[in-house]
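Design a sequence for this backbone.
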C-alpha cells in the first residue's frame, strides 16, 4: 500500500563532479516485499530491499534494507518494533 506522495527513486549519479556534469546516470533496483505499507511522504532510495509485512512511517527516508515484520521510521528509516502475528488468526494469503 502506498500513501500519498510516496517516492520510489531508482536513479543515481556519480559522486565525482566531472562524471556527474557529463550527464552520467545509473539505476539500482528496489525490492519491496509482500504486504508492505509505505506512509505518506516516504522516500525509498536506490538499491534497498524492504522485507515482507513492513510498515514505514510517514516522512521516513529508506536508505538501507529494512527487515521483514517490522515498523520502521525516521531519516534514515530504522526498525522501532517487531510486528507479532497471532497464529490463530486467518493468514493474509487466504483472504486474497
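Sequence:
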Amino acid at each position: 500500500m502506498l500513501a500519498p506522495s510516496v517516492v520510489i527513486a531508482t536513479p543515481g549519479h556519480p559522486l565525482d563532479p566531472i562524471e556527474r556534469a557529463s550527464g552520467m546516470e545509473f539505476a539500482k533496483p528496489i525490492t519491496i516485499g509482500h504486504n508492505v505499507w509505505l506512509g505518506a511522504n516516504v522516500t525509498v532510495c536506490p538499491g534497498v530491499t524492504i522485507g515482507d509485512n513492513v510498515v514505514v512511517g510517514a516522512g521516513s527516508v529508506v536508505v538501507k534494507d529494512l527487515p521483514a515484520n517490522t515498523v520502521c521510521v525516521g531519516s534514515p528509516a530504522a526498525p522501532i518494533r517487531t510486528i507479532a502475528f497471532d497464529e490463530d488468526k486467518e493468514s493474509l494469503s487466504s483472504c486474497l
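The two ends are 14 Å apart (CA to CA).
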